[in-house]
Write a sequence for this structure.
C-alpha cells in the first residue's frame, strides 16, 4: 500500500510539472506575438492570453510542489509502534529436605530411648536438575520507510550519517532508546556490525520475537 501511494504522489507531481511547462511555453509564445500585432486590440488580447497562460503555469507548478511536499513528509506522519513488553521470568522453588523420625526400642538396663530425627540426604536442587535455559534470540527489525533511512551516530536528525540503509534492510535491536527532535530513536546494529541510531517510525519489528 505504501509503495502504491508513493507512485501515485510522484505521478501526480510529474503531471502537474508537465502542465506548468506546457502553459509556460504557451505564455512565452503569446508574449512574442504582442509586438507582431498590427492593432492595439490584438496586442491587448495577446497580453491577456500571455497573463492567463502564466497564471495557469503558476497554478500547476504550485500543485506539483504540494504533491512533492506530501511525498516528503508522509513517512514522518506514520504511527509509531509500541515497544515490546518483556516477559517476566518466574523463580524456581527448591524443595525442602525430608526429615523422617527413627525410634529405638527401650532395654531393661537403660532408660527409655528418646526419639531422635534422622536427616536424610537432601534431594538434588532444582538448579542442578533443571534443563539449561535456551538463549533468547536477539530481536530484529526491518527498515520500512519507502525509500530508506540514514543510520546516524547520535539519536538526532543532525547526528553523523554513518550508513544509508535501504528499505527492507534487517537490523538487530539494541537496548538504547532516546527521544529527540520529536522522534523516538532506537539503537541498532547492522549485519556488518555497525552500530548507530534509527528513528523508530522507520522500523518494522519482526513478528514472533
Amino acid at each position: 500500500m505504501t509503495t502504491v501511494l508513493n507512485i501515485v504522489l510522484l505521478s501526480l507531481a510529474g503531471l502537474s510539472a508537465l502542465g506548468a511547462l506546457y502553459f509556460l511555453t504557451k505564455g512565452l509564445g503569446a508574449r512574442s506575438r504582442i509586438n507582431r500585432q498590427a492593432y492595439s486590440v490584438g496586442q491587448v488580447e495577446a497580453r491577456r492570453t500571455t497573463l492567463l497562460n502564466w497564471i495557469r503555469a503558476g497554478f500547476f507548478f504550485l500543485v506539483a510542489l504540494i504533491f512533492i511536499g506530501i511525498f516528503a513528509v508522509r513517512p514522518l506522519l506514520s504511527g509509531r509502534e509500541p515497544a515490546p513488553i518483556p516477559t517476566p521470568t518466574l523463580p524456581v522453588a527448591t524443595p525442602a529436605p525430608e526429615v523422617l523420625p527413627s525410634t529405638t526400642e527401650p532395654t531393661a538396663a537403660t532408660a527409655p530411648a528418646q526419639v531422635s530425627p534422622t536427616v536424610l540426604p537432601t534431594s538434588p536442587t532444582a538448579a542442578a536438575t533443571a534443563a539449561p535455559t535456551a538463549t533468547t534470540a536477539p530481536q530484529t527489525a526491518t527498515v520500512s520507510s519507502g525509500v530508506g533511512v540514514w543510520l546516524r551516530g547520535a539519536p538526532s536528525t543532525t547526528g553523523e550519517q554513518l550508513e544509508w540503509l535501504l528499505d527492507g534492510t534487517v537490523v538487530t535491536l539494541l537496548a538504547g532508546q532516546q527521544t529527540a527532535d520529536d522522534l523516538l530513536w532506537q539503537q541498532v546494529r547492522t549485519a556488518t556490525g555497525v552500530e548507530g541510531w534509527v528513528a523508530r517510525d522507520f522500523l518494522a519489528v519482526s513478528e514472533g520475537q
